[in-house]
Recover the amino acids of this structure.
C-alpha cells in the first residue's frame, strides 16, 4: 500500500502530460477545418465540414459584402480585422462564416472551431497553429459571457493587449446575439456620471463594452420582413426539388410555419422548405 501511495504522484504527472499532449498532426493541405476540444486540449480534424455557398444566403447582401471583403484581404495576406457578427438569431451569422470557408478553402483558408470553454486555452492554441501558407480563422459561435468566466479575459487579451498574440495568419470571427457579448442590467445605468453635460458610463458598462470594441469589424444582422422570409423559403424549396414554391398554398403554409415557430428568419425558412419538399407537396 505504501508503494502505491508513492507511485500516485508519478501517475498524476503522467496523466497531466497525456492530457496536454498534442493530437496527431493535422495535414492542413488536405484538412480544411478542425475543432479545438477543451477537455483534451487537442485539435481534431473535421473531415466533412458543413459547406454552404454564399448564393444561398439571401437578404444579407451588405453583411456578405463586408465579411467577404475582410476575408479576401486576409486570404491575400493583406491587413484584415477580427470580426464580431451580432444580431437576431437564425439570420445567417454562422452560415456566412462557413460560406467563407467554402469560397476560400482553395486559396488556403482554414477554419478552427472553438467553443467558450476553449477560449481559456487561446495562447496554447496560437502556439499549435503553424506559421504556414494557410490562413486560419478561429470561429467562436454563439458567444456570450459573464465577467468571471475564464474565457472572457483570455479572449480580451488575445484580441488586444497580450504578449501572446496570434500570428499574422490567424484571425478570430465570433457570432453572438448580444452586441457586447455580456448580459446588461438596468442597475448599471445608475452608475453613469454626468460631467459638464456629458454622460460617462459606469465601470461595469465600460468593462462590457471593452471586449466587443476590440473586434476591428462589427457586422450587424437584423430581423427580416415577411417578403424576405418568403423569398428564402421559396429559394430553398426549389433547391430541394419542390415545384410549387410560388403557389398561394406554399405561401400560406410558410406563414403558418413561421407563426408556429414565433419567428421569421432564414433558419426557419429553410426548415419549412425541408419539411415542404420532404413531404412532396
Amino acid at each position: 500500500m505504501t508503494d502505491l501511495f508513492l507511485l500516485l504522484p508519478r501517475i498524476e504527472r503522467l496523466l497531466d502530460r497525456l492530457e496536454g499532449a498534442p493530437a496527431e498532426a493535422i495535414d492542413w493541405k488536405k484538412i480544411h477545418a478542425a475543432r479545438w476540444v477543451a477537455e483534451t486540449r487537442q485539435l481534431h480534424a473535421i473531415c466533412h465540414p458543413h459547406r454552404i455557398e454564399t448564393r444561398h444566403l439571401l437578404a444579407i447582401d451588405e453583411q456578405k459584402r463586408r465579411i467577404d471583403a475582410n476575408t479576401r484581404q486576409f486570404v491575400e495576406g493583406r491587413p484584415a480585422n477580427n470580426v464580431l457578427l451580432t444580431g437576431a438569431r437564425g439570420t445567417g451569422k454562422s452560415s456566412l462564416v462557413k460560406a467563407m470557408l467554402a469560397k476560400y478553402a482553395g486559396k488556403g483558408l482554414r477554419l478552427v472551431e472553438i467553443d467558450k470553454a476553449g477560449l481559456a486555452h487561446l495562447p496554447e492554441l496560437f502556439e499549435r497553429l503553424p506559421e504556414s501558407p494557410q490562413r486560419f480563422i478561429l470561429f467562436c459561435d454563439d458567444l456570450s459571457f459573464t465577467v468571471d468566466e475564464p474565457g472572457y479575459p483570455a479572449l480580451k487579451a488575445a484580441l488586444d493587449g497580450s504578449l501572446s498574440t496570434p500570428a499574422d495568419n490567424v484571425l478570430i470571427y465570433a457570432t453572438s446575439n448580444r452586441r457586447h457579448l455580456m448580459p446588461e442590467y438596468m442597475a448599471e445605468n445608475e452608475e453613469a456620471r454626468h460631467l459638464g453635460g456629458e454622460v460617462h458610463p459606469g465601470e461595469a458598462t465600460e468593462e462590457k463594452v471593452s471586449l466587443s470594441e476590440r473586434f476591428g469589424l462589427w457586422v450587424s444582422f437584423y430581423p427580416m420582413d415577411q417578403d424576405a422570409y418568403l423569398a428564402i423559403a421559396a429559394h430553398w424549396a426549389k433547391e430541394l426539388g419542390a415545384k410549387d414554391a410560388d403557389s398561394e398554398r406554399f405561401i400560406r403554409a410558410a406563414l403558418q410555419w413561421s407563426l408556429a415557430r414565433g419567428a421569421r428568419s432564414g433558419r426557419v425558412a429553410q426548415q419549412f422548405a425541408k419539411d415542404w419538399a420532404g413531404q412532396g407537396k
